[in-house]
Amino acid sequence: MAQKTYAGVTVDVNDEGYFNDPSQWTKEIAAEIAKEEGLSLTDKHYEMLEYLRNKFNSGEQLTIRGINKSGIVDVKTFYQMFPGAPLKKSTKIAGIPKPTSCV
């Protein structure tokens, strides 16, 4: 099991950098992970990260279609907020496992 230190806190991560224990996540850690990904988080980013964490904690499958139905942002905006691989990038920053729908 690998470990990384963000915001002075050592967290357990898998070989791709996703948290093994989502309870270790904080907003300060999210900001540092986002910085590694070349992003600066806004309030809208944090709102989306909380949405993703809540969906994960309730056992729901995370999908791009679900993001569109979130009421927070539409898909186009989601792609702009987390460019490249938005679901992979956002779940990593949110401190939750990579969705099974992502390769």
Can you tell me about this structure?
This protein is mostly helical. The chain has one domain. It is 44% helix and 10% strand. It has five helices and two strands, in the order ββααααα. The chain has helices spanning 27-36, 43-57, 64-68, 75-81, 86-93, and strands at residues 2-6, 9-13. Strands 1-2 form a two-stranded antiparallel sheet. Strand 1 and strand 2 (9-13) form a beta hairpin. The longest helix has 15 residues, at 43-57. It starts with a strand and ends in a 10-residue tail after the last helix. The model has no long low-confidence stretch (mean pLDDT 92).
Present the secondary structure layout.
Elements (H helix, E strand, L loop, with lengths): L1 E5 L2 E5 L13 H10 L6 H15 L6 H5 L6 H7 L4 H8 L10
Antiparallel strand pairs: 1-2
Name its key features.
103 residues, mainly alpha, two-stranded antiparallel sheet, 5 helices
- Count helical runs: 5
Beta strand %: 5-15%
Structural class: mainly alpha
Provide mean pLDDT, rounded.
Answer: 92
Concise overview:
This protein has helices at residues 27-36, 43-57, 64-68, 75-81, 86-93; strands at residues 2-6, 9-13.
